[in-house]
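Researcher: Batch entry, complex prediction.
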Amino acid sequence: MMYESRFETDERFERETVGSIERTTAYETNEADGPTYKTGTTIVALAAADGVVMGADKRMSLGGRFTASKDVEKLSQVHSTATMAISGAVGPAQQLLDSLQAEASLYRTRHGEPMSMKALSKTTGHLVRGLPVQPLLGGVDETGGHVFELDGSGSVIEDSYAAGGSGMQTAYGLLEGRMEPQLSVSEATDVATDAVLAASERDTASGNGVTIATITREGVQIGDVTDMNGGAS
Amino acid sequence: MEPNNQQAYDRGSTIFSPDGRLYQVEYAREAVERGGPTVGVTTEDSVVFASYGNARSSLVVPESIEKLRDIDGQLGIATAGHVADGRRLVEYGRRFAHQEQLRYDEQPGVETVSKALADFVQESTQVGGTRPFGAAVLVGGFVETPRLYGVDPSGTPTEWAATAIGKDSGDIRESLEAEYETGLDEHSGLKVAVRALASEDRELTSETLDVAVTRESGFEPFGSEKQETLLEETEF
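Model: Structure tokens for the complex:
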């Protein structure tokens, strides 16, 4: 019975091809009385030759029309060599991050080694199911760099590069032209930065700067890209 | 219906003996005394653990005998006694520590985790249909300051500067009492722990010895190389 009703609710979390961030989900209408903070967001992830590079803007918006925060960290380390980028509703995304960090840490203490990217992406798929969140997951394990796109229906899709959030069309446009297999980490960093900057120029719900995460076998480094106007328009 | 209650207080753990003792809990302590010993020593900036475990057969893979374990990357836990019971306590400690981190976004302290374990162990001495845990644990780590706790099968938590659980724990503790000083550095703490653990019927080799240190930076199990170096320095 419970399983059937889960299937019924799934329609509400179907992937939309355009502006998936702006949709109204049952989660929001039933559980939140007031307006919900959305990331708006442009996030990107690229597999490079010896790692993964992820990028995000820093704007959080209300209804896509008001900038509720200009300094949001959308990239978070979830594992010794993995990072998640969030788009969608902020509250559920933060819950998802906390739960994923706890699951990855429990796995490491129980198994004595960190999760593989396959195990980590599967776990993220279980946790994100039912949440109005569309994260990207990037990380490195002994099989190399991996990029996954996920959504609230629980889908886990691996790709060599991906974009998410309300700025994804602009970001994808740039990625299609610039993405190549076997980019170096520094080349991939430039591509990711430019993709977020391009989307920040045209998407009203993205902007206020760029955060970049580089993930290699040695670990995760997350930092703001300075020396730019950050698409503050 | 011949009343056969002579030994009743010796059976169910929830039953007091006429002189106020819980025999099942005392038997559980005996089970702990049969387990391979583990020493825990607090130093000025860490807690060090040293364990002795001897494989009952040369065919057992030594690495599969786990004595010292990681709770959450920060705290370490050691068990002595019934291995199966000890594993249950380790898993409980791990779950509890991760739940605390999830709930408060704070690293749980040694005292918090130890007292949660103590409550869990105590429950088994009072709830119907259960038996006490035949295992004791040591929980140690650096959270603001280095601390070491022991929990025995009665569910009593005790904080120690240095202590031992398992076989010959009384003798080992005597040696610790003689050798321990406050403010030891980590290296001296390791030597004190290994010297206290050594005895005529315990040959310390990199296979029988297991060493781990918990510092501010987290839990670090020693590999066989580091253990061998330590044994050389301690002259075993």
